[in-house]
User: Which sequence fits this backbone?
């Protein structure tokens, strides 16, 4: 494979796992990233790269020349007060025809509440949370830009991400898990390694201006997943509270929505076999190998 010049706007757990996957596959690449921290030369997984400061208030203008050299772009910066700072500061720099692959990481919160029903990429988007409203707005802005400049853009709508580092087993051990008494509340999730695998496959199997749900095969309630985790750990089931007792605003928004995310398009187009097809495989691996 020809060496790719990859620019990551944001370098969180998804981007890092993507780089890890490229390394494992022996894909040749040059990496540049952005961060909220001061610009610096850094190293990750034996990969030396440049990281440029890029925030809603200030950014290192030196990143522009590096960005203009890139042919692959991963966008993982969440909207800030409803604004995508990449579009705000750099949209005219996307005019170039050199881009081969641009991926925007969105979220399934754009679907809003579907009363526990299934949603696919053609389902109505009716977000209820501030996060979902902002994500949908920015998705539309990226699609408009993709149409304007004929960009090779795909959008990944990610379900709730968990990983070997951030997962319900750790939160159970810390006593941070709350089970809310709400019937018919379904939620979908995805292990970060499966996101990274979908991203790496899409480098060679790509269709522009497409949207994909990135989710595992088994939507479930928080209670079901927490009980499975508690059983693995030999702990009692966390105490349940009523929905009107929730104080945390993010948790309130989370429980407004109930839906099951359909992942057929992702699996069929990318011929993707999930490493962790359900939460059970994911939590079993974490329990047996990490914790």
Assistant:
């Amino acid at each position: 494979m020809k060496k790719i010049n990859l620019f990551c706007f944001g370098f969180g757990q998804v981007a890092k796992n993507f780089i890890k996957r490229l390394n494992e596959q022996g894909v040749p690449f040059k990496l540049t990233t952005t961060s909220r921290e001061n610009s610096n030369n850094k190293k990750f997984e034996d990969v030396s790269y440049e990281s440029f400061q890029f925030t809603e208030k200030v950014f290192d203008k030196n990143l522009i020349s590096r960005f203009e050299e890139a042919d692959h772009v991963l966008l993982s910066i969440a909207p800030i007060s409803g604004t995508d700072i990449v579009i705000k500061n750099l949209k005219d720099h996307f005019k170039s025809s050199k881009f081969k692959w641009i991926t925007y990481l969105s979220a399934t919160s754009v679907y809003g509440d579907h009363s526990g029903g299934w949603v696919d990429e053609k389902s109505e988007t009716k977000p209820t949370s501030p996060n979902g409203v902002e994500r949908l707005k920015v998705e539309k802005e990226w699609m408009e830009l993709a149409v304007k400049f004929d960009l090779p853009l795909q959008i990944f709508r990610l379900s709730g991400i968990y990983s070997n580092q951030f997962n319900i087993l750790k939160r159970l051990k810390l006593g941070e898990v709350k089970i809310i008494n709400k019937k018919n509340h379904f939620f979908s999730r995805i292990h970060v390694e499966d996101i990274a695998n979908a991203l790496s496959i899409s480098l060679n199997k790509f269709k522009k201006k497409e949207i994909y749900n990135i989710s595992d095969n088994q939507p479930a309630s928080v209670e079901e997943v927490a009980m499975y985790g508690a059983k693995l750990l030999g702990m009692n089931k966390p105490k349940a509270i009523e929905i009107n007792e929730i104080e945390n605003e993010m948790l309130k928004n989370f429980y407004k929505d109930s839906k099951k995310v359909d992942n057929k398009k992702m699996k069929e187009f990318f011929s993707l076999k999930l490493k962790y097809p359900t939460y059970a495989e994911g939590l079993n691996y974490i329990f047996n190998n990490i914790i």
The mean pLDDT is 95. The longest strand covers residues 29-35.
